[in-house]
Specification:
Blueprint: E1 9-14, H1 17-20, H2 27-36, E2 37-47, E3 61-69, H3 76-85, E4 89-96, E5 99-109, E6 116-123, H4 141-153, H5 165-191, H6 195-214
Parallel strand pairs: 3-4
Antiparallel strand pairs: 1-2, 2-3, 4-5, 5-6
Helix pairs in contact: 5-6
């Protein structure tokens, strides 16, 4: 897929049951696996051993999973469950009715090589496979993975200066959280009847807006 080298081909079907047989899976996530997914394929393994890329220091392999859907929606909890089960970085390709979305999350080791912290997900719009903005760009597995994240995120994730991908993702998360706080505070101000309380909330609002401007 994606015009990747034949040496990366894996093309193994994975029973979706493997991901929700775990006792820690919630009934809601299990229901999403059952009702939203037709089939899961492990399409590619991108690694130093399957390409001419240099080995990564933080990314050993990038797995490409194709998930064929029953409808146009997939609960994000499904992707998080798969990311928890697979100790590698994953590029998800969701397929429905001949169209594709590419999804990935910034995923970093949190405790050893087999445990990962999965941050927020980024995704493309629905489009034809050959229109997906994805290409094998970089000299190492680390660089290819970082570029996949940027390619999928598009304008929603931009590195500033010499900022690393991790720093860009953390800043993006802070921006999103601040915007949510600002929206919630603005809603409270509109509902508040007491002038002194409104003034206090407006002071908090100005502080949050200044923090957002800095980011």
């Amino acid at each position: 897929m994606l015009g990747l080298p034949k040496t990366t081909d894996f093309n193994k079907r994975i029973p979706k049951e493997k991901f929700y047989e775990n006792l820690n899976v919630t009934p809601t996530v299990k229901k999403c696996f059952v009702e939203q997914i037709k089939v899961i394929y492990w399409r590619n393994k991108i690694a130093a051993t399957t390409t001419n890329l240099a080995a990564g220091t933080t990314v050993n392999e990038i797995e490409v999973f194709e998930i064929k859907l029953k409808g146009s929606l997939l609960d994000e909890g499904v992707l998080r469950q798969i990311d928890k089960e697979i100790p590698y970085h994953i590029l998800f390709l969701l397929e429905y009715d001949g169209k594709y979305q590419a999804w990935t999350a910034y995923k970093e080791a949190s405790a050893g090589n087999t445990a990962f912290k999965v941050n927020q997900y980024y995704h493309t719009d629905w489009m034809a496979e050959d229109e997906l903005p994805l290409k094998l760009d970089g000299l190492s597995v680390d660089a290819v993975y970082e570029n996949f994240v940027y390619q999928i995120a598009g304008d929603t994730l931009q590195a500033s200066g010499h900022e690393s991908l991790q720093e860009a993702v953390e800043r993006d998360e802070k921006v999103k959280n601040l915007k949510k706080q600002i929206e919630a505070l603005q809603a409270r101000i509109r509902k508040e009847k007491q002038l002194n309380v409104q003034m206090k909330l407006n002071t908090e609002l100005k502080k949050l807006k200044k923090e957002l401007e800095v980011l």
